[in-house]
Amino acid sequence: MVVVGSEAVYSDADDPRWIELRAPADEGLVAAARRAFPDARVGPIGTSARVGGAQSCEVEAMEGYAVLRAAALAGVPAVEVRVLANAVDEPDRAKWRFEDAKNVLAAALPLLLAELVRA
What we know:
Layout: E1 2-10, E2 21-24, H1 27-36, E3 41-47, E4 59-61, H2 64-74, E5 80-83, H3 98-118
Parallel strand pairs: 1-3, 3-4
Antiparallel strand pairs: 1-2, 1-5
Helix pairs in contact: 1-3
């Protein structure tokens, strides 16, 4: 499944006083990704260094927040697009489907690039 991030949410701190940091994706790039992938899930993607660490999001990654935040600081539009290989709460890596996800990504990337060129 293709996921388009509406924002990246940094959620690694276990301190209950922690306020999640958010980095919004560029709205124009999100719109282009939605045109490329009309059936994609669109929503926040949590950034965490550990499996299941992004508890406030249904989708998690390790580097999305840093990339979107760096892009924002540089004044460069950015969007996070992912293909799911596993459920957030699935620690058993034998159940992760990397090959399937890579195949979906390989097919999806040209569609996204074509849409971004038109945008």
